[in-house]
Specification:
Elements (H helix, E strand, L loop, with lengths): L3 E10 L2 E11 L4 E5 L6 H9 L6 E6 L2 E5 L4 E2 L7 E4 L11 H12 L4 H11 L15 H13 L5 E5 L7 H18 L2 E6 L2 H7 L2 E5 L5 E5 L1 H6 L4 H6 L4 E8 L2 E3 L18 E6 L4 E5 L7 E10 L3 E8 L2 E8 H6 L9 E6 L3 E4 L9
Parallel strand pairs: 3-9, 3-10, 7-8, 8-9
Antiparallel strand pairs: 1-2, 1-4, 4-5, 5-6, 10-11, 12-13, 12-14, 14-20, 15-19, 16-17, 16-19, 17-18
Length: 363
């Protein structure tokens, strides 16, 4: 059993409140990700669970066992919580070989099966035949595997990962993301993963908890649930590039300010006369202005070839939106636009929000 229960936990530093009455449950055997912007309290919460910090109020239990209780002052030391932890900077010892790094926790514990368990952990992360190398002889990805093997060698009930892939290049980051998920499934270990990278969170998690800048939990759910059904515009904006267009209901007809034609896209599921439609760049379909499209009128302000896709910045009635289309489709269908071209914009999918929301940071 390695479920984690956090109940009404608060933490302050000086006069600043980092976490306020936060409650959360991580289920046994799942990969649970805390996703949020830098400075929102993710790492503070991880340190509280690990035992490096004590909560000012509230309780924390792991596997049904209380490890921290602010009311009684109880605090189980980190080395008695059955945890493994991987840090952002790897924290491998440069003067030790791969084998010595991985074996170190077992050596401290006086394990009688040190070599067998160490070599098994090294094999799990794919570092067979590299056990005698030193960190300086390894790539960044290999060093991260050493840190992961060292965390797994003690067979922890809970694995805490604090932004462990941030220092890797894009290719290695993707590779390690899949490997961590595969290890979690193979070993059945519970993982609590901390990141601000939404792509990693969506790809690795069984469930995601999204935190805002003030350390509040805004939504918890499966990756597809959080992505496809955001509870508010903060979640929608944080989980990827977000386009917003203001829509008004006038005499029962929906219109975008500045455009004569009525709204003919996906129907809103929100009441009210002032609405905002949100959509991803991948939700946009383009057509020539001269075609028979019934979409919105737009003008291309920027056209960028990004290899597998074309990225367009389009002005729609004074609001700039992003559109991303597969490059081969653009070429095959004659949808390659240049700066200044007129076009028609259609939406395949849309999320509706009450009130008016402006685009920010999508350029």
């Amino acid at each position: 059993m390695a479920d984690v229960r956090i109940s009404e936990v608060s933490k302050r530093y000086a006069e600043k409140s980092v976490l306020e009455s936060l409650s959360l449950e991580v289920r046994d055997g799942e990969c649970f990700t805390l996703l949020g912007p830098s400075g929102c309290g993710k790492t503070v919460l991880l340190r509280l669970i690990a035992g490096f910090e004590s909560p000012d109020s509230g309780t924390i239990s792991i596997g049904g066992e209380s490890v921290a209780d602010a009311a009684t002052g109880q605090r189980l030391p980190p080395d008695q919580r059955g945890l493994g932890m991987v840090f952002q900077d790897y924290a491998v010892w440069p003067h030790m070989s791969v084998y010595e790094n991985v074996a170190y926790p077992l050596k401290l514990a006086g394990s009688t099966a040190l070599r067998e368990r160490t070599m098994r952990a090294i094999g799990l992360v794919g570092l067979d035949k590299l056990e005698q190398r030193f960190p300086s002889q390894l790539s960044g990805g290999q060093q991260q595997r050493v840190a992961l093997a060292r965390a797994l060698v003690s067979e922890p009930r809970l694995l805490l990962l604090d932004e462990p892939l941030n220092n890797l290049d894009a290719h290695l980051r993707e590779e390690m993301r899949f490997e961590i998920k595969a290890l979690q499934r193979q070993l059945g270990v519970t993982i609590l993963y901390i990141t601000h990278d939404q792509e990693i969170a969506l790809g690795i998690s069984d469930r995601i908890a999204v935190m805002d800048e003030r350390g509040r939990l805004r939504q918890i759910g499966a990756p597809d649930e959080v992505y496809e059904h955001p509870v508010d515009d903060f979640i929608f904006r944080f989980l990827g590039v977000a386009n917003f267009l203001p829509v008004r209901r006038e005499d029962g007809v929906l219109r975008i300010a500045g455009l004569p034609e009525p709204w003919r896209g996906p129907a809103p599921d929100k009441p009210g006369d002032v609405l905002t439609v949100g959509f991803r760049p991948s939700d946009v379909a383009l057509a020539p202005e001269s075609g028979d499209s019934t979409g919105l009128s737009g003008v291309v302000r920027r056209a960028s070839f990004l290899g597998a896709q074309m990225d367009y910045l389009i002005d729609v009635a004074g609001t700039q939106i992003r559109a991303a289309l597969p490059s081969h489709e653009c070429v095959a269908r004659g949808l390659v636009f240049a700066e200044g071209d007129s076009c028609r914009v259609e939406l395949a999918n849309a999320h509706w929000f009450e009130g008016e929301i402006t685009n920010k940071g999508i350029l």
